Each structure stands twice: as C-alpha cells, then as structure tokens.
Amino acid sequence: MKVFYTRRRMSEAGRYQTRSTHRRSSVATSAAVADLREDERLTMAECPGCKGWFPEIEGPTHAYLTVSPGCWARFGRALALHYSDYRYWPAHQLLTDAYSLQHSRSADRRTLRSTHVHLGSLYAQLRLGQAEARVISLRRALSEFDFNELPTIWPTPSTSILDVDMSCPAGHLTTVEVFAKAVLNDWAAFHGLADRLCRIREKQHARTP
Ligand SMILES: [Zn+2]
Fold first, then answer.
1. pLDDT digits (tens, 9 = 90+) for 151-185
2. How far is Cα 15 from Cα 12, in angstroms, rounded to an integer?
C-alpha cells in the first residue's frame, strides 16, 4: 500500500507523520500536494510493524523483524545518536525494547524470541521499575528460551518512531519514554505474559545462593 507525500510537508512538520496524524490532516495535505511540482513528490510506504508511513527507500532491513526500510533507517538514525553522543544514551534501552517489540510480529522462531525478550524487558522497566542491571540479566535469561507461537492477534500500534524527537537530547529522552509507554500499553493484552516472563527470572534469582 502506498501514498504520495511531499518533502515540503515533512519539512514543515519537522518529522514524518504516522498514519493517524496523516488521516487527521488529509485536507491540508491535499492542498499542499497540489502546490508541488511532480519532482518534489516522494513515495511513502506503510511499515508492516508500526503502521507508520515512511519514505519508500531502497535499503537494508532486519533479518527477522517486520519492518520497512524507511522505518529501519529512522531507528538507525536514533542508534547513531545514542552511540555518538552520551547525552542520548539513557534512552537506548527503552527505545530498543519498545521498537523491537513493536516490530516483532511474526511466527518466525527468532521473531517470537524477540517478542518475549523485549516484552519482558519493557515491562520490567516501566511496570516493575527494575534497575538496568537486573533488566539486562532478565533479557539474557529470556534469550536462552525458545517460545511457542502467540495465540492472539497482534496489537494495533498507536505510535511509531516518527513520534520520537531526534533534534535534542532532552526532547529525545522525553519522547522515547512516551513512545515506550505507548507501545507497552498497546500490548496490554500481553501484560499477563510479560509478568510471567519477569517472574521466570525471579525464580532463577531464588535459586542463586
Ligand atoms: Zn516501523
């Protein structure tokens, strides 16, 4: 599924838009598109994971995450910020877990592991308030399991990485937290599973001398 969009509109907005905001502003968008030359138009495509609309580019994607090249490129841009500027680093774990969970939507064995690992990790941080070291330990423990296929339909995304600010560290940290909470909320039907995943680690702790 594709839609024509414009460079001008993306520039005015300061970032690309999600499908939901695109729908709300469809009248203004049509007027803006009519004013542009054909060569200013840019083809957009929907990401199969987060349902956001991104430039339809030729580019790499992940081996088993359900993600479009345009969405993957924007996540890569965020990672570049994290690794190049320490002020962005505090957002790294939350963004990685939320983004990976959002795009782990298939029955592939590796994808299912990603779903469980990042669901547990996100839940541990946002709902249980667990410290970073314990969350890392949980993630490592869950990575050693194979998981059965999930029986319910995938959540409907309410947000995408388009809503994450890339312009300054403070804005980035704030919007990543909002993004992560929204993703976890989208996965509310799986919170029981998330709680059980976190308790798996607690049982392992209990066996530790
Ligand atoms: Zn996406």
1. 778 899 999 999 999 999 999 999 999 999 999 99
2. 8
- Distance from the alpha carbon of residue 202 to the mean position of ligand 1, in angstroms: 32
DSSP state, residue 163: G
Instruction: Please report the pLDDT score of residue 30 as a whole number.
Output: 38
List C-alpha distances in Å: 64 to 36, 100, 101, 146: 38, 10, 12, 15
Cα-trace Rg, the chain: 18
CA of 17 to the centre of ligand 1 (A): 12
What's the 51 CA to ligand 1 centre distance in angstroms? 6
Select from 101, 103, 96, 97 the least CA-distant residue to 61: 103
Helix residue ranges, H only, 85-157: 92-102, 109-126, 132-142
CA gap 159, 172 in Å, rounded: 15
| 3-state secondary structure (DSSP) of residue 128 | coil
Q: What is the pTM of this model?
A: 0.78
* Six-digit token string for 66: 């359900």
What is the reported pLDDT for 36?
45
